[in-house]
């Protein structure tokens, strides 16, 4: 890759209860929080969960050229059960939003970093829980964007 292609990217932090979403500017410089989507655990096995439908709508609305999903690896870099679940979720998302590519990226410590940054800004308690998933998605996407720019 010689240059990060232009276009909005969405960053996604997949949690058990909520999914944080961030978006980049079209130039791939800055990630900003977008929203939090409730995880749908009630969908029938053959139905598309509402969270995937909402993410697909965001991809269309923002004309995203790529979706970057944080992969929770442990501190030693191994893929545990959480990483397996997120990989399966990302595969399902890729099916729903095709042909827009879904990229997995190491999200080690993104939620911890996001929580710390929010706390440093005075955001705590219920207010923090409401936005920490978005902040983690920003961390994931911003790290990925920075890594892509370093490669060019």
From TrEMBL:
<dbReference type="InterPro" id="IPR037027">
    <property type="entry name" value="YqgF/RNaseH-like_dom_sf"/>
</dbReference>
<keyword id="KW-0540">Nuclease</keyword>
<dbReference type="GO" id="GO:0016788">
    <property type="term" value="F:hydrolase activity, acting on ester bonds"/>
</dbReference>
<dbReference type="GO" id="GO:0000967">
    <property type="term" value="P:rRNA 5'-end processing"/>
</dbReference>
<comment type="similarity">
    <text>Belongs to the YqgF HJR family.</text>
</comment>
<dbReference type="InterPro" id="IPR005227">
    <property type="entry name" value="YqgF"/>
</dbReference>
<dbReference type="GO" id="GO:0004518">
    <property type="term" value="F:nuclease activity"/>
</dbReference>
<dbReference type="InterPro" id="IPR006641">
    <property type="entry name" value="YqgF/RNaseH-like_dom"/>
</dbReference>
<comment type="function">
    <text>Could be a nuclease involved in processing of the 5'-end of pre-16S rRNA.</text>
</comment>
<keyword id="KW-0378">Hydrolase</keyword>
<keyword id="KW-0690">Ribosome biogenesis</keyword>
<feature type="domain" description="YqgF/RNase H-like">
    <location>
        <begin position="7"/>
        <end position="114"/>
    </location>
</feature>
<dbReference type="InterPro" id="IPR012337">
    <property type="entry name" value="RNaseH-like_sf"/>
</dbReference>
<keyword id="KW-0963">Cytoplasm</keyword>
<protein>
    <recommendedName>
        <fullName>Putative pre-16S rRNA nuclease</fullName>
        <ecNumber>3.1.-.-</ecNumber>
    </recommendedName>
</protein>
<dbReference type="Pfam" id="PF03652">
    <property type="entry name" value="RuvX"/>
</dbReference>
<dbReference type="GO" id="GO:0005829">
    <property type="term" value="C:cytosol"/>
</dbReference>
């Amino acid at each position: 890759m010689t240059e990060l292609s232009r276009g909005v990217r969405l960053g996604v932090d997949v949690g058990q209860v909520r999914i944080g979403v961030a978006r980049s500017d079209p130039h791939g410089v800055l990630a900003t929080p977008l929203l939090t989507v409730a995880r749908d655990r009630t969908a029938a096995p053959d139905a598309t969960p509402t969270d995937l439908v909402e993410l697909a709508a965001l991809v269309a609305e923002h004309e995203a050229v790529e979706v970057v999903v944080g992969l929770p690896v442990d501190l030693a870099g191994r893929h545990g059960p959480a990483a397996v679940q997120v990989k399966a979720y990302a595969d399902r998302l890729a099916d729903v939003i095709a042909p827009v590519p879904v990229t997995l990226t190491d999200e080690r410590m993104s939620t911890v970093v996001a929580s710390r940054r929010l706390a440093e800004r005075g955001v705590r308690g219920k207010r923090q829980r409401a936005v920490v998933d978005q902040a983690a998605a920003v961390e994931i996407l911003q790290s990925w964007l920075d890594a892509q720019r370093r490669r060019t």
